[in-house]
TrEMBL record:
GO cellular component: cytosol
Protein name: Glutamate 5-kinase
UniProt binding sites for substrate: 51, 138, 155
One biological process term in Gene Ontology: L-proline biosynthetic process
Primary localisation category: cytoplasm
Function: Catalyzes the transfer of a phosphate group to glutamate to form L-glutamate 5-phosphate.
Length: 265
């Protein structure tokens, strides 16, 4: 696969862009849109995979907690996706960037005809310097929010699938911690950040543990699954802290930040 050095997929999770009560963290979202717009202006073509629809919808509907019932989750996603895109459109617009929304389900990437349409749309958006913003189509599909047996069972895996589709050279996953640690930093104060991973093996998986917050779906394990898929296609995968999206500038300057999973050449 010939990867495009100019193409970068960035994945942001619910815990980075929402507050505890489900309201959008506008300061953080603005910070993210500003950094990504700056990277676009440097000549890169970005794709943003963004979660947050369910949490934002639940917050807007004033539900006491994140819904557990499937129908209610899908309703929350319908409400929240709109709000999310409204803000992305507005904030990216302030930095002079255009965005387009793509909502995907497993069938879209498994069916050859739909897959071709998806690839064509992604290419047309990127060639016109429009930032595609992608989420799972939660309101009518429930692979990600319910099941672990589908091609993408969470947005980490979705971001890896998208990176493969657009032949991106890099996938940058914004997390709520600084990267992959050798043990859980929330329970072990001596945990050390691993800056480079050449090979994802069982030992590494066991050490990674699960560090997900209760607002998102994925933890470190789903990020490692995503990294395994993307690196197998030659894509470099980075996990960095979503509170500091300007670290993407450092990545482009080839500085060491977060954890790099080296793409297999
Ligand atoms: N698609 C879900 C949402 O937008 C999130 C799934 C995930 O965090 O992996 O709320």
């Amino acid at each position: 696969m010939a990867l495009s050095k100019k193409r970068i997929v960035v994945k942001v999770g619910t815990s980075t862009i929402t507050n505890e009560n489900g309201d959008i963290n506008i300061r953080q979202l603005d910070h993210l849109c500003r950094a990504l717009s700056a990277v676009e202006n440097m000549g890169y073509d970005l794709v943003l995979v963004s979660s947050g629809a369910i949490a934002v919808g639940a917050g807007k509907m004033r539900l006491a907690q994140k819904p557990k019932d499937l129908g209610l989750k899908q309703a929350a996603a319908a409400v929240g996706q709109l709000e999310l895109m409204h803000l992305y459109d507005k904030l990216f617009g302030e930095y002079g960037r255009l965005v387009g929304q793509i909502l995907l389900s497993n069938e879209d990437v498994q069916n050859p005809e739909r897959r071709e349409n998806l690839t064509n749309t992604l290419n047309a958006l990127l060639e016109n310097h429009i930032i595609p913003i992608i989420n799972e189509n939660d309101s009518i599909s429930h692979a990600e929010i319910e099941s672990d047996k589908k091609l993408f069972s969470d947005n980490d895996m979705l971001s890896a699938v998208v990176a493969v589709f657009c032949e991106a050279a890099k996938l940058i996953i914004l997390s709520d911690i600084d990267g992959l640690y050798d043990s859980n930093p929330k329970t072990n104060p001596d945990a050390k950040l691993i800056s480079r991973v050449e090979n994802i093996d069982e030992e590494l998986r066991n050490r990674a543990g699960d560090s997900g917050s209760n607002r998102g779906t994925g933890g470190m394990i789903t990020k490692m699954d995503a990294a395994e898929l993307a690196t197998s296609k030659g894509i470099d995968v980075l996990i960095i802290n979503g509170q500091r999206p300007e670290q993407i500038y450092d990545i482009l300057d080839k500085k060491i930040v977060g954890t790099l999973f080296v793409g297999k050449k």
